[in-house]
Write a structure and sequence with these properties.
With 594 residues, the chain is α/β, with parallel strands linked by helices. It folds into 4 domains: 3-86, Arginyl tRNA synthetase N-terminal domain (Gyrase A, domain 2), CATH 3.30.1360; 115-283 and 332-389, HUPs (Rossmann fold, 3-Layer(aba) Sandwich), CATH 3.40.50; 286-326, no CATH class; 405-585, Isoleucyl-tRNA Synthetase, Domain 1, CATH 1.10.730. 54% of the residues lie in helices and 11% in strands. The chain has 22 helices and 14 strands. The chain has helices at residues 3-19, 54-68, 88-98, 131-149, 165-177, 183-186, 190-214, 219-225, 227-240, 244-268, 278-281, 286-295, 329-343, 359-371, 405-423, 431-451, 463-466, 474-491, 508-518, 520-530, 533-553, 562-585; strands at 28-29, 39-42, 72-78, 81-86, 115-119, 154-160, 274-277, 298-300, 306-309, 317-321, 347-355, 380-385, 388-389, 459-460. Strands 7-6-5-11-12 form a 5-stranded parallel β-sheet, sandwiched between helices. A 4-stranded antiparallel β-sheet has the order 1-2-4-3.
């Protein structure tokens, strides 16, 4: 039980004993720096129940707590704020409970609880992953890991968009202009090779439009009648009809892309438990259109198309099946969601990591699934996130102006190398060790810079700024972790010794650090509830700032006596472990030396 929970019960008891009144809740806040105290009770909300002077009420409660609660050693009242001082023994008791728990902050999963499926990445197989995909992957992976840390069973998944006109554009351009080249013959990653042909298609398409306009066509007519587009549309029709040659080319080129994607995922440090492919799911959902018609959830228009009227929920009418009987994306998403529950019966909820331009789509999807009577639909969540911008402007895949994910990862490592060399901190490292460290620092900088921002906010990503070794950055936190490891190596002390309050009197900086450590389990739970890695990232930065203040004000290895030294070394070790655990759920590695 946390200090706040314990004190809440005691304050309620104090009010009952002193004023014969029951209060529903107790409001706490951090004690302001200029006053003595570890936690503050706000008295003003109690005036609804207890009539009188807030200072007198605060003093009455304070006296009760000092007399009846062992861990409360003193108090002071400033206007309507009761500042409570907690005994050192309370903090040492807490510390002794957690100091050997390497999984501190994490909760074991409950086998009786339903699992959660987290979907992220879900790229198109016509181009490599780019900076926007990186934010998606980092968010989805981290939220999955946070949910696990909070005690949930989690499946990570993605749906790969491997069919449609955009895929055929790459295929057709390769067929027309590729001269049989392959990833092996060019030395290019497969996703990059296929992406080049997506760009090539767009270039040729634009040329044809210009020619048609020059011949007297309107721009709209030219866009629809360009021969290369008509040929791509014909290729899609052949694919849907199962044409052997087209399907074979589709499998080959998609295979190149999957190999490329897997290499990027490995470099980025994300993984998946299961994969879904749009080519297998695009016909799903049609059976539920029939069921929805029977139950009255859907209705048929005069032209034969099927719709769902959501105006009673403040939304509009949504088509779920065209007049010719073909499905739309919404139908497919309905079918895929239901299929996942069939495949994983222990799943009771899903998180969809998709950009905020799809907010309305997911509102509609979740509401339709509820109307169809699926109980688990109330546990669906759209992890909506803002776009990532660069100082140079917006990215466009068709024009080849995207920031390629692999290039960015390499650039981050190169920037880390440049800054590390300037700082001159790597004497005694082999070249192999240096390269591994540059990648750890570069990726840590990239991940932290993206994850420290609330998912809903748009990001302006600046690679140089992200690798700063000072401030709220990944490298700053990694450097603090490495500094603590250096202290532990020098100390070489037995970590298992348990110290009592009699043996150690806490310095104010030690107490502040322990208070920050106490928050970690709650931060994990809040981050899971809010699907926000930013809460963990910014908590870790606060913890590191608190440690650095402790480090600058308190001598660790030069402590006055052995007990103090043991305690401070152990405290440093717990801080390092907490940093490591926090960064683990963000998907960030911490170096032992730096």
């Amino acid at each position: 039980m946390s200090l706040q929970e314990t004190l809440s019960n005691q304050v309620k008891q104090a009010v009952l004993a002193s004023f014969s009144v029951e209060i529903e809740s107790v409001e706490f806040q951090a004690t302001r720096k200029e006053f003595a105290g570890d936690i503050t009770v706000v008295v003003f909300p109690m005036l609804r129940y207890v009539k009188g002077n807030p200072v007198v009420i605060g003093e009455t409660i304070g006296n009760y707590l000092v007399d009846n609660v062992n861990d409360v050693k003193a108090f002071n009242v400033v206007k309507g704020f009761l500042n409570i001082e907690i005994s050192d023994s309370y903090y040492l008791s807490f510390f002794n409970r957690i100091k050997d728990n390497h999984a501190y902050g994490f909760v074991n999963s409950n086998p009786n609880e339903k699992a959660i499926m987290v979907e992220y990445s879900s790229p198109n197989t016509n181009k490599p992953l780019h900076l926007g995909h990186i934010r998606n992957n980092l968010l989805g992976y981290s939220v999955a890991e946070i949910l696990k840390a909070a005690g949930k069973k989690v499946y990570k998944t993605q749906i790969i968009n491997d069919r449609g006109i955009h895929i055929c554009k790459s295929m057709l351009a390769w067929k027309l202009f590729g001269n049989g080249e392959t990833p092996e013959s060019t030395g290019l990653k497969g996703d990059k090779l296929v992406g080049n042909y997506y760009v090539k298609f767009d270039q040729e398409y634009k040329k044809e439009i210009e020619n048609l306009v020059a011949e007297g066509k309107t721009l709209d007519e030219a866009k629809k009648e360009a021969p290369i587009l008509l040929e791509a549309q014909e290729m899609l029709r052949k694919w849907e009809a199962g044409d052997e040659e087209i399907v074979s080319l589709w499998k080959t080129m998609n295979g190149w892309v999957y190999d490329g994607f897997n290499e990027t995922y490995t470099n980025l440090g994300v993984d998946f438990d299961t994969l879904y492919y749009e080519s297998n799911t695009y016909l799903l959902g049609k059976e539920f259109v029939a069921e929805g018609l029977k139950s009255g959830v859907f209705h048929t228009e005069k032209d034969g198309s099927v719709w769902c009227d959501l105006t009673d929920a403040g939304l509009d009418k949504k088509i779920v099946q065209r007049a010719d009987g073909t499905a739309v994306y919404m139908t497919q998403d309905i079918g895929t969601a239901i299929q996942r529950i069939k495949d994983f019966p222990d799943v009771g909820g899903m998180v969809y990591t998709v950009g905020n331009e799809q907010d309305y789509h997911f509102q509609v999807l979740f509401l339709i699934l509820k109307k169809l009577g699926f109980d688990w639909a109330k546990n669906l969540y759209h992890l909506s996130y803002g776009m990532v911008d660069l100082p140079s402007g917006k990215m466009k895949s068709r024009e080849g102006t995207v920031v390629d994910a692999d290039d960015l990862i390499d650039e981050m490592a190169a920037t880390a190398e440049e800054i590390s060399n300037e700082l001159g901190k790597l004497e005694g490292y082999t070249e192999v060790e240096k390269k591994a460290l540059y990648k750890t620092i570069g990726l840590g900088a990239l991940k932290y810079y993206i994850l420290k921002v609330d998912p809903k906010k748009r990001i302006l990503f600046d690679p140089k700024e992200s690798i700063d070794f000072q401030g709220n950055t990944g490298p700053f936190i990694q450097y603090t972790y490495a500094r603590i490891q250096s202290i532990l190596r020098k100390a070489n002390l037995d970590a298992s010794v348990t110290l009592s309050a009699v043996e150690v009197s806490l310095h104010i900086k030690e107490k502040e650090l322990l208070k920050q450590l106490q928050l970690f389990p709650e931060v994990i739970q809040n981050a899971a509830a809010q699907h926000s890695p930013a809460l963990i990232a910014n908590y870790t930065y606060d913890l590191v700032k608190e440690f650095n203040s402790f480090y600058q004000n308190v001598s660790i290895l030069g402590a006055d006596n052995k007990d103090e030294k043991i305690f401070r070394v152990q405290l440093s070790r717990v801080v390092a472990n907490t940093i490591k655990n926090a960064f683990r759920v963000l998907g960030i590695k911490v170096p032992e030396r730096m």
